[in-house]
UniProtKB/TrEMBL annotation:
Belongs to the mitochondrial carrier (TC 2.A.29) family. This is Mitochondrial uncoupling protein 2. It is a multi-pass membrane protein. It is found in: Membrane. It holds the Pfam family Mito_carr. It comes from Saguinus oedipus. SUPFAM superfamilies: Mitochondrial carrier. InterPro entries: MCP, MCP_dom_sf, MCP_transmembrane, Mito_Metabolite_Transporter. The keyword Magnesium does not apply. Its main location: membrane. Keywords: Membrane, Repeat, Transmembrane, Transmembrane helix, Transport. The gene is UCP2_1. Gene3D superfamilies: Mitochondrial carrier domain.
Length: 220
């Protein structure tokens, strides 16, 4: 909720800011808006992601519970590790989510615009579903290599790779390009379903809110 409310909720407003109110938004400005809201969302949501990971880790480890509740986890980490540690690992998360956010929002935007301009569909549920499904596929194509390198790098032995870039280069040399798309179908099922549910719901809620605001402003 904290991530999506920023990266998706602010996208249209930030896009209008970059285009200075123009109805036509170039791909470059859409990418800029997507990366901006993606980075802002990570800055807001990073503590929630960190607490989730640490809270789940104690359940897998077994033994005594270090955190009694989510709120207690926030307080304990801030007190024992320091308030800044709630933002540990923010740099790679910003990079990853800015790219993924761009892929999701910009491809959805472009697919929807293309369908409407070509008069293939009208601005309704089937159009939103098709655009979201296409955005999910494009996002999986773009995000899979990033996620594969991140997972391989995080799970590697100490000093096995000097950096994430070195990890990617080693994978390419030893395993070839296909290594970056292992587990593509599960990733697509995850991102595809996420995009369909998220965008379809977002469009319907946006229209319902706009209709409600219009009815309130209408004269009696």
């Amino acid at each position: 909720m904290s991530f999506a409310s920023v990266c998706i909720g602010l996208y249209d407003s930030v896009k209008q800011f970059y285009t200075k109110g123009s109805e036509h938004a170039s791909i470059g400005r859409r990418l800029l808006a997507g990366s901006t809201t993606g980075a802002l969302a990570v800055a807001v949501a990073q503590p929630t992601d960190l607490v989730k990971v640490w809270f789940q880790a104690q359940a897998r480890a077994g033994g005594g519970r270090r955190y009694q509740s989510t709120i207690n986890a926030y307080k304990t980490i801030a007190r024992e590790e320091g308030f800044r540690d709630l933002w540990k690992g923010i740099s790679p998360n910003v990079a990853r989510n800015a790219i993924v956010n761009c892929a999701e929002l910009v491809t959805y935007d472009l697919i929807e615009d293309t369908l409407l301009k070509a008069n293939l569909m009208t601005d309704d549920l089937p159009c939103h579903f098709t655009s979201a499904f296409g955005a999910g596929f494009c996002t999986t194509v773009i995000a899979s290599p990033i996620d594969m390198v991140k997972t391989r790098y995080m799970n590697s032995a100490l000093s096995q790779y000097s950096s994430a870039g070195h990890c990617a280069l080693t994978m390419l040399q030893k395993e070839g390009p296909r290594a970056f798309y292992k587990g593509f179908m599960p990733s697509f099922l995850h991102l595809g379903s996420w995009n369909v549910v998220m965008f379809v719901t977002y469009e319907q809620l946006k229209r319902a809110l706009m209709a409600a605001c219009t009815s309130r402003e209408a004269p009696f």
